[in-house]
Amino acid sequence: MLLGRDVRKDFPILNVKVNGKPLVYLDSAASSQKPNAVLESYCRFCEQRYANVHRGIHTLGEAATGDYEAARRAIADFIQAPALEGVIFTRGTTESINLVAHSYGQKFVKHGQSIVLTPMEHHANLVPWQLVAKSVGAELRFIPMKSDGTLDLSEARKLIDGTTALVAVAHASNVLGTINPVEEIVELAHKVGAKAVIDGAQAVPHMPVNLREMNPDFYAFSGHKMLGPTGIGVLYGRPEFLNDMDPFLTGGEMIREVYLDHATWNDLPYKFEAGTPAIAEAIGLHAAVRYLQEIGMDRIAQMDHYLATLALEKLAGESDVSIYGPLSQRGAVVSFNVKGIHPHDLAALLDREGIAIRAGHHCCQPLMRWLDVQATARASFYLYNTADDITALVEGVRTARKILA
Amino acid sequence: MSDLYSDILLDHYRLPRNKGKLPDETLAVEGKNPLCGDELTLHLKLDGDRVVDIRFEGNGCAISMASASMLTEDLKGRTVAEVERRVEQFRALIRDGKEPEGEPLDDLASLAGVAQLPVRVKCATLAWTTLEQGLLQVKRS
Description:
heterodimer, A: Aspartate Aminotransferase, domain 1, Aspartate Aminotransferase, domain 2, 3 domains, 17% strand, B: alpha+beta, Sufe protein. Chain: A, three-stranded antiparallel beta sheet, 4 helices, 42% helix, globular
């Protein structure tokens, strides 16, 4: 049984009309829509149990703290995190990776060492490492990509060597849809004593993720791409490294003892959660995780595969459409261009039909250069999409071509 | 939104006016929207304080290219002071979404809908911002 139609009733926004047309939402890789279960859980918490966490000795303070920590446990379970104290709430993937770059990279990557990345990284998993490399005097290396947008692992084996301090790679590409062989990359890193940082922003929402098996040193993802609220994300870090790292942000909550001239740090994970966290958002993310688990991540991955395959097939059948990225082993992200139509115009003309896609460089300017394009259009799918949405997309592309070409 | 890709705009996009190089130009100015990938070069020929010819080359979305085409058509033959007034009028159109007082904006008025689309403002104004930089260069030299 396919998901699409069966779950659409859970997402109130899918009843909205855009420009007088029923919404066809094909931009989940940018941000996903929220089911009632998440919206209700968020509201109920704010209406009935809200207070600050880890502070007040009062009933609501304890209720909120209990719910917040239950969210942490549920998320740890969802990603099979090896240690609960390694699960840190952040604002999202960007903050998670910046935390690692700042608190691990700046302290432990040494002059003359190398940081190994890929050309398909989102700016959030590239620019933080550029800053580390510049400040400590490390070298940035890039695992080359094959023409289909997959990583050349034989080159990776040569690039990841005794000089390598750290390897940072996307689990799944937000442009190409490529699902990278992260287990092998983690192993290559560990073989030479390097740390592995995985950007899971496009993976955790879409497939079963098991950190015990993958064994990364750091793993980052965002709540809002997995049916949860904005402003909440996760960093998993190996506790022994988190303990050796200095705090990222300082202030309340992350502290143990403070004197006028020095301070000591709280235990993990609180050492990395300075200030009042996104409490209700964490509770909302818990509800999202519950919702995803009820459906089952295997089924969601199957649905993604079905939709991506259908979209690739249908778009490939259109004249003047170029598609980027691999044909198999890929996520539900399809980037493409229509000859003679700027992706921004395509997106604007699709919007007239109520169809929401992303157009631009997708925070991957180096990848755009690699593809030799200024920008791409991108349709991305999730469990609430249907084959009808893809038909609408293809018809929209035809209409746009008629208007502009 | 439906107004934006109007017949006037599409006509300028499909059949751009004054596209190409200008052999005896006074100066060429480049403009870019790195976030969209829109690229544009304006070729200007001045005689005293009059812009006697303008052409443009570039790649980009329909809004940026049509706006450049309309610009060349509208400004050719005007004095620098008139051009500056026109730039002001165009900026008011994009800001307020309606034609300002004064000389009618003709084809340019078709871009009024951009005011409701903050992300497309930089597309519509690329040629105009580039022109302003060119005029600054002229004044400095």
